[in-house]
C-alpha cells in the first residue's frame, strides 16, 4: 500500500513505538492522526515532523481507560474525516505502570483489560464506516507474545491478581478479537491482523516494568509498518505475527467458543449492540 495521501490513525502514538511509526508514516506522505493523553508530548512530535519537512499530524487527546473517552475519540475522527485507510490499535499500559497493584478503569473494569483490549475493540467497531469507505483498508492490533488464557469466571482478575497476568490476558483478548473481526469483515476489503512487534523494546512501558530493553522501537516499528503497507500481506487476514513472520498464538485464540464468549462480554461491557 502506497501511504502517500492515506489517512492513518495510531492510538498511543506520542511515545514509544507508536511515535516512531507516526514519524515514518508522515515521512511517507500519509495524513497521520496521532493520539495520546499528553498534549505537550504530542506537540514535540508534531514539531519534529514539521521540522523534517512533512505535513503536521492531527492530534486527538483522549483517555482510553474510559469508554466515554474512547467514544469521544471515535466521534472526533468521524467528524473530521470521511475515510480511514489504516487503524493501528497501539495504545496500551504494561504490567507495572503506576505500580503492581490491581487498578480499575473509570468504568470499573480491570485497567489493562480496559485500555489494552476494550478500547481497541470499541474503536474498531465505531470506525468501521470510515474503513469501509476507504477499502481496501487495514486494521493492525499491536499485541504481544505475552499471552494468558482468559478465565471467564474471573475476567477482571479479582482473585490472584498480577499485573503480568492482566497484561497477557488483555493481549490474548486482542488476538482473539482480531480473528473474530477478520471473519466478520471477510470480503469487505478490510483486513485485520495482530502482531508482537519486538521483545522488550526500549520504551517507557518496558522500563516501568523493570525490564532491560533488548530490542529497539525501530525494530518493532518495522514489523508494524510491514502489516500497514506490505504488499505481501495485502490478502492476509485474521493472523498473528511475531515480528515479520506469521506465528501461532495461545491455543485459546483458536477456540471458537471462547471467542464467542469474549465477543458477547465485550459487546456488553462497551455498550455496543450485538
Helices and strands in order:
Blueprint: E1 7-10, H1 16-27, E2 31-36, H2 39-51, E3 58-61, H3 67-80, E4 86-89, H4 111-134, E5 137-142, H5 163-184, E6 190-196, H6 204-208, H7 217-229, E7 240-242, E8 245-247, H8 256-270
Parallel strand pairs: 1-2, 1-4, 2-3, 4-5, 5-6, 6-7
Antiparallel strand pairs: 7-8
Helix pairs in contact: 1-7, 3-4, 4-5, 4-8, 5-8
What does this protein structure show overall?
- It is a single chain.
- The protein is an alpha/beta fold.
- The protein has a single domain, classed as NAD(P)-binding Rossmann-like Domain (Rossmann fold, 3-Layer(aba) Sandwich).
- It has an 8-stranded mixed β-sheet with strand order 3-2-1-4-5-6-7-8, sandwiched between helices.
- Strand 7 and strand 8 form a beta hairpin.
- Helix 1 packs across helix 7 and helix 3 runs parallel beside helix 4.
- The two termini are 32 Å apart.
- The model has no long low-confidence stretch (mean pLDDT 94).
CATH superfamily: NAD(P)-binding Rossmann-like Domain
* Biggest pleated sheet: 8 strands, mixed
- Return the domain count: 1
Structural class: alpha/beta
Strand composition percent: 5-15%
CATH topology: Rossmann fold
Number of helices: 8
Distance between the termini: 32 Å
Dominant shape: globular
Briefly, what CATH class?
Alpha Beta
- The CATH architecture can be named as 3-Layer(aba) Sandwich
Q: Give the topology string: H per helix, E per strand.
A: EHEHEHEHEHEHHEEH
Portion in helices: 40-55%
Mean pLDDT: 94
Main sheet: strand order: 3-2-1-4-5-6-7-8
* Total beta strands: 8
Give start-end ranges of low-pLDDT stretches. none
| Radius of gyration over all CA atoms, rounded | 17 Å
